[in-house]
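Researcher: We're teaching a course module on how sequence relates to structure. For the next exercise, students receive a sequence and then see the predicted structure as tokens, so they can try to spot secondary structure elements on their own. Here is the exercise chain.
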Amino acid sequence: MRAHKKAPASGQLAKGALVNNHTANTTTYTRRRAALHEAGHAISHQAHGIRVKSVEVSQDGPHWLGWTATEKQPDVSQASDLRSDVSVASGLMCGHVAEMLHAAPVPKGHNLDEIGRALHVLSIIMDKGGQMDLYAYPVDLLERNRAALIGLADNLMLTRKIGGHRLRYLLREVVP
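Model: And here is the predicted structure for the students to work with:
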């Protein structure tokens, strides 16, 4: 088994890319769940025009790790565009929602960091007079892109990391 580089902490920039990092106990967080979760993030990012550089899942000791590396995502602030804010909130929620749709039930306490960050983004969206259903929007997006979601998750079951041409091929039919 080759040495595994530790991923940056969630939300940290790694060479200009935002990385979502997830760990959990293997008794509840299977490779399939991690693959679906990361595929959900990748689908959302692709649908919102944020280039996905790589998606990876692997087991490191007793924990499963997963991360999705993208181009730098839009900033969320009172001055940011509502469409950008929605893309960020969706990107945060689609991992959890992919688990809900295809690996239910989601274990208690999982994904609370991302849900909390999505709620913060939602509060900014609402301050601007916008609206977003943090569950309905990602469900609709992932259902529209079900084949790509399952295809990417299936490929992550076969290999630890997908990037480059292969990832672009797997995400080619993602629609907003």
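Model: If you want an answer key for the exercise: The mean pLDDT is 85. DSSP finds six helices and five strands in the chain.
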